[in-house]
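Anyone up for a design puzzle?
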């Protein structure tokens, strides 16, 4: 192993990967331009570098293949051969094999190169055939059979495809003998130079602390002297000796002045040092972050090759334009972009671009254009994938939605373009008429949507029939630094990603409305459901004090929610640190960070949190935000169980207006679960309900030793005497009809059983 902790094979893999990317890019450029020395020189050097690196680590097959390719480039440079598209195909296949050889694991090449021996031998012979061909001899028919374009499934990573049951699962690569191999990260010499300079400055800054400590000790001596003078002054006062009082007082004032002056100087020095240290740390941190950034071009090297092969397979003419190749992107983001961008580019060629004849008929050039662009905007990375093809037929899309039964006809006909296009991102949704090797399986765009959502970004699509389609991706610049809103929740600190929060608002308690056990508030004319953040994070649910409620507004495609927190603490840039893997997936939490004061803070997983909100709403177990309780007085709690929303709300409002604390359940089973989970002073139940009726609920409560003393009131529309007798026999304390709401009978029964609130 080298001093850096990486083996020679690790370094060979990284070098071969970089040179293979350069070879692929150069060969595609060579195919579309003249074979001049300027184009061929980088190819010859890349093949030569791979050959030399492979020879050092003993990968003889890579040496043989790279040497054959180098000879061809040298011959072409000397104008001894003329390379055709078929020759480029063979050389591209050689590049693919070199890239595969560089990916194989382990430090012993002899253990895994044997399977490539026949492939390398065959490719080397075909490449050397180019050298023996007379320059004037047409080569296209001679090698076409060996140079057919790859089928689309092999061009680049794509969505999972179906496999038959008889296919064995691919075996994982053998692990390295030295344990897991860490990836090699390339850092430019300029970055290292700047990091070394900043590290040196940091060392100098640290050395300032010792002299500063010495100066503080000097200040301590002045203070000790001042204390001694004050003690002497006190003794003289006690003894009544007034002759020395004036001298001692003057000395005390002099010592105090020296202490103040010395302290002021030290404070100024410390403030100056703190400012320099903050600036240095900021520059050092930004430089380290910069070392994580890679140009966008590093992540798109394989796309020109993929576009070329797919276009040939589909018999289309395509030109790929890539803009913003120097745009800096976090390496983690860049690694995650490969699969989504691959899907978008493949869709653009297969679905978007027309065949050459159709383009000419439509008045367009035969060659279609696919444009991929990266740029920074408003602190985000913005990617666009656009084509000048046929666009998306919204009427056809409407028919697909109806055929799949995804919505009603009246709703689909009234949908806007944005609403219709959002269906493209649903799993399994496809506009293709038939399944082909390239598309039609209904996978792809949901992968794009999923990846973008996981990193906290967004994606949307615009289209114009006959003119083309554009996909817009907005992503964070880096995953290692997060701009977050820090809040207090039940005495704990949490951070919410800034780009996942719609708004921060303060709501008056007087503006809250209720329906059943759910609370909501009107924001910009829309009703937004409110949820206590403490309940979502499984903390003691307590109502924030004060008349105003701090609320975070978050949303997804299903709707918008308001999270009630204790207080806003402001915005901070946080360094994201992963949770310990031994914890597994922590509900509603994605990572951890350290605040400016050194305290830890959990970073909320907004996607997971929204799913939790949906579960709480579906089960009807949301906690309510009630007005703060005065003193230590506990309001009496009543559980209302009824499957009628109208009856539930009437009973709840009646009891709340009287001052009781009320929870509701939608049927007997949910009521039974709540009765066992929480403490109630009274249970009010209907009789006829799904899952568990009221009589069964009463029997279950009376049969439970912990609950058998809880009073129960049955409120039913059944007013026969036999029904009343049956209710009393199973254990109810009161049996009322629903007409009791029209007078004080209902409330009087509650007060008789448990007293005033």
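Challenge accepted. My sequence:
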């Amino acid at each position: 192993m080298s001093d850096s902790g990486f083996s020679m094979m690790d370094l060979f893999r990284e070098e071969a990967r970089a040179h293979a990317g350069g070879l692929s890019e150069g060969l595609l450029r060579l195919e579309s331009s003249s074979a001049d020395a300027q184009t061929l020189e980088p190819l010859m050097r890349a093949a030569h570098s791979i050959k030399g690196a492979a020879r050092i680590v003993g990968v003889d097959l890579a040496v043989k293949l790279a040497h054959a390719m180098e000879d061809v480039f040298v011959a072409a440079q000397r104008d001894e051969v003329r390379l055709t598209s078929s020759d480029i195909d063979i050389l591209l296949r050689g590049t693919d094999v070199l890239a595969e050889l560089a990916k194989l694991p382990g430090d012993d090449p002899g253990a895994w190169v044997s399977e490539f021996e026949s492939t390398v031998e065959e490719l080397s012979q075909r490449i050397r055939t180019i050298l023996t061909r007379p320059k004037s001899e047409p080569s296209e028919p001679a090698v076409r059979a060996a140079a057919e374009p790859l089928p689309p499934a092999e061009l680049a990573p794509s969505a999972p495809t179906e496999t038959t049951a008889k296919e064995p699962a691919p075996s994982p690569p053998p692990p390295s003998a030295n344990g897991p191999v860490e990836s090699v990260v390339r850092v430019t010499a300029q970055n290292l130079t700047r990091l070394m300079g900043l590290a040196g400055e940091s060392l100098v800054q640290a050395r300032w602390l010792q002299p500063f400590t010495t100066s503080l000790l000097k200040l301590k001596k002045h203070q000790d002297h001042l204390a001694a003078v004050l003690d002497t002054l006190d003794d003289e006062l006690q003894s009544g000796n007034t002759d020395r009082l004036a001298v001692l007082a003057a000395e005390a004032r002099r010592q105090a002045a020296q202490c103040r002056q010395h302290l002021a100087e030290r404070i100024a020095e410390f403030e100056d040092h703190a400012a320099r240290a903050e600036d240095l740390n900021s520059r050092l941190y930004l430089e380290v972050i910069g070392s994580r950034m890679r140009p966008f071009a590093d992540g798109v090297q394989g796309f020109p090759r993929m576009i070329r092969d797919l276009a040939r397979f589909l018999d289309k003419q395509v030109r790929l334009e890539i803009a913003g190749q120097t745009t800096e992107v976090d390496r983690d983001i860049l690694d995650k972009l490969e699969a989504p961008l691959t899907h978008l580019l493949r869709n653009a060629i297969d679905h978007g671009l027309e065949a050459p004849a159709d383009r000419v008929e439509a008045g367009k050039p035969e060659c279609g254009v696919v444009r991929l662009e990266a740029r920074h905007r408003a602190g985000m990375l913005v990617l666009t994938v656009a084509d000048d093809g046929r666009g998306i037929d919204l009427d056809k899309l409407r028919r697909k939605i109806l055929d799949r039964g995804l919505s009603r006809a009246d709703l689909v006909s009234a949908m806007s373009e944005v609403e219709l296009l959002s269906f493209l991102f649903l799993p399994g949704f496809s506009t293709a008429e038939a399944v082909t090797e390239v598309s039609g399986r209904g996978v792809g765009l949901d992968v794009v949507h999923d990846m973008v959502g996981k990193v906290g970004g967004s994606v949307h699509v615009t289209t114009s029939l006959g003119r083309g389609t554009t996909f817009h991706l907005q992503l964070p610049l880096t995953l290692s630094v997060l701009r977050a809103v820090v809040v207090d929740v039940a005495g704990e600190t949490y951070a919410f990603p800034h780009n996942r929060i719609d708004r921060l608002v303060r709501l008056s308690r007087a503006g809250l409305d209720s329906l059943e056990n759910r609370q909501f508030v009107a924001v910009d004319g829309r009703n937004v459901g409110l949820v206590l953040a403490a309940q979502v994070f499984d903390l003691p649910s307590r109502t924030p004090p004060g008349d105003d409620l701090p609320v975070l507004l978050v949303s997804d495609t299903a709707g918008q929610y308001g999270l009630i927190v204790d207080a806003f603490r402001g915005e901070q840039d946080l360094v994201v640190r992963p949770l310990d893997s031994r914890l597994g997936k922590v509900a509603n939490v994605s990572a951890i960070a350290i605040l400016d004061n050194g305290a830890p803070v959990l970073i909320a997983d907004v996607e997971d949190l929204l799913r939790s909100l949906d579960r709480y709403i579906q089960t009807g177990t949301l906690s309510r935000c009630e007005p703060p309780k005065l003193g230590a007085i506990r309001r009496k709690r009543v559980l209302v169980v009824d499957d009628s929303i109208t009856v539930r709300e009437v009973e709840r409002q009646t009891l709340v207006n009287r001052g009781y604390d009320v929870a509701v359940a939608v049927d007997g089973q949910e009521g039974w679960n709540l009765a066992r989970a929480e403490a109630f002073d009274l249970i009010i139940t209907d009789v006829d309900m799904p899952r568990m009726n009221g009589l069964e609920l009463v029997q279950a409560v009376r049969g439970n030793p912990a609950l058998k003393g809880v009073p129960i009131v049955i409120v039913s529309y059944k007013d026969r005497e036999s029904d009343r007798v049956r209710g009393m026999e199973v254990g109810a304390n009161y049996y009322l009809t629903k007409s009791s709401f029209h007078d004080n009978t209902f409330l009087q029964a509650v007060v008789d059983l448990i007293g005033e609130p």
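A detail worth pointing out: The chain has five domains: 8-148, 190-294, 337-473, 481-619, 637-754.
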